[in-house]
Amino acid sequence: MSESNHVSPETCECRKQAAPAESALPLSYARTLSWLSLVVILLTSLGLSFFISNSARETLLTRQEDFARLLVENLNSQIFRRFALPTILASGRIALRQPTQYEHLDRVVQSVIQGLPVERLRIYDFSRLVAYSTKKEDVGRAGLSPPNLDDVLHGAAPKSEIISSIPAWQAPFRVPLREGTFVLRVLYPLRGEPLRPGEDAPVMGALELTQDITGDYEQVLAFQGIIVVMCLLSSVVLFGLLLMLIHRAERVLAERMHRNRLLENELHSNEKLAGMGRVIASIAHEIRNPLGIIRSSAELLQRRTDKADSGTARILGAIYDESVRLPQTVNDFLDYARPRQPRQDLVDVNLVLDQVMAFLEGELGRHGVAVERETEAGLFVHGDKDLLYRAFYNILINGQQAMDGPGIVRIRGALEHPAQESGPGRVRLEFLDSGPGFDPAVLSSLLDPFFTTKDGGTGLGLPIVQSIITSHGGQIELENGPEGGALVRVLLPAADIEAPEVQDE
To answer: N or C: which end of the chain has fewer CB atoms below 10 A?
Structure first.
């Protein structure tokens, strides 16, 4: 018994080395990969969203600039045709300080920009003074001209720029924006008609147009926010799906690895049992013959020494009893080490119990043990009658030995039907003795091989019973009875056949 429970240091070391390998599933690294993928997806989504939103912003601003340039071109044409040319023809020169000329120009400008999103319009002369403004108080002032005004006065291409009162990166965090936060300013050369064909039109000044595009910029920011939020949500959803798939794969893989480990353990256990069976069979062969000789010799000496003293007779009786017990011990080892595969015959459980009771009647009566039996008729199972006989025999012998004197063993048997009334159900047998019952401290170990609380016992009685019942697709349960005593419950799959028909056969 001590040898069977011994574990070598090499085995422990192997188990310690194998444990981390088993716990580290191949998909464990996928969690790190999933988090990295989330970062990549988020960065990609954010980059894509900013690219799309910036493209939309640039498109909007370009359209605003094109609109402003068309507007100033129209203003340039209207100012020359409707103001400059008539004024020169009527007065000989343009002098906007004269109220009549200023009002005339203001009417022309207002007729063009009426209803358009124009914040301010100014006209600069070559001295960088404000010659005209939609805000009359700016007329004649210096120092209001933009830095690139000289380039436009000398005939350079129109200039446009966006002026903001806050940094562009702060705009998304300060919505709603105040009016005038973003302003589009366009500088356009104010030209007349060419003096001669083929010549450039002369520059008469510079026209400055400013538009408040804060509302349009807010729309761009809102569009940008929608894109960013949608990208983030889609990234989180994709990451959640990926993580769910990884967890499911891990769970399936862990279950398969667990099943593989169980199969490996079972295979290893079977190999050990097979090896132990070969060793025990060899030992049994070498023991049985000498034991047979010892038994027959002891029996012969008992017959020849009827008149021997009591001490000699007691010694001969002990030799004979031990020679009878030892073969049974050897058979227990053989039954556990080399379990037989059960046949699948139709077995009447009541008939097997009858045979066991008939065989044990004398033994139980000699110890003062009575048997009370309440079993239903028609308890049929598919299995091996000899193995079931051995299982019931061991249970009754264990109960008789546990009582260690007179007592009662109650046997109850019934057919349990499934809850949904489909299928044959199962046969339930209960063996309850009037002994002291199982020790709760060792109850969980009673089905372990070689574990025994008896002096001289092998600890294989109940494990053999469990092996037989399990091989029949059943199960065994050990507990203490409600009023004391040990209760052994055996559950076997019932045969799907009508009992009366089998009995008639």
So the answer is: C
Structure tokens at 53: 């939103």
Together in a domain, 354 and 216 = no
Alpha helix locations (H) across 24-148?
A: 28-79, 85-91, 99-113
Of 198, 224, 250, which residue is a domain's last? 224
pLDDT over 50 (residue 352): yes
- What range does the domain containing 394 cover? 342-504
Residues 187/158, Cβ–Cβ less than 8 Å? yes
Q: Please tell me the total count of domains within the chain.
A: 2
HSE, side-chain direction, 13 A CA sphere, residue 481: 19
**415 phi and psi angles, rounded to 5 deg:** -100, 120
Q: Find the range with the poorest average confidence among 24-38, 64-78, 354-368, 477-491.
A: 24-38
Tokens of 492: 């076997």
pLDDT the model gives residue 161? 83
Predicted local distance difference test score (pLDDT) of residue 305: 66
Per-residue b/e over 51-60, b at no fewer than 16 CB within 10 Å? eebeeebeeb
Number of C-beta neighbours around residue 325 at 10 A: 12
CB-based contacts of 311, cutoff 8 Å, min separation 6: none
Mean pLDDT, residues 417-445 taken together: 76
φ/ψ of residue 245, rounded to 5? -65, -40
Residue 182 domain flag = yes
Length of the chain: 505
Q: Give the start-end residues of each E strand in 296-379.
A: 345-348, 369-375
The total of other beta-carbon atoms located within 10 Å of residue 147's CB is 8
Higher pLDDT, 302 or 207: 207
Q: What pLDDT does residue 84 have?
A: 82
Any domain includes 238: no
CA 436-441-445 angle, 5° bins:
100
Mean pLDDT of 354-380: 86
Taking each helix axis from N to C end, the angle separating 349-366 and 385-403, rounded to the nearest 10 degrees, works out to: 30
